[in-house]
Amino acid sequence: GFGYVDAQNRPIIPSRYLWAGDFHEGRAEVETPTGMGLIDREGRYVIAPEYEIVEYEPATSRIYVRRDGLWALFDYAGRQLTDFAEAVKPEV
To answer: What's the pTM value of the predicted model, to 2 decimals?
Structure first.
């Protein structure tokens, strides 16, 4: 599994993820058997790992989350800002 280590290669967050992205602005996207989520630097879930896709954009602190093919917008603290809909995530 994937986890996180510090600069001295000491485990900080245990290897418990199927996939783990890099940290940006204190947040990292992770994947578990139950879905994708977002964690903070302590390994606490900001967004529970229950979604198809979780995309964090550090420049805006916006988090786009997809469930059942529909997107919703969340804030940095993990609060859902919009309902799930087809056109929430902008095309880049």
So the answer is: 0.90
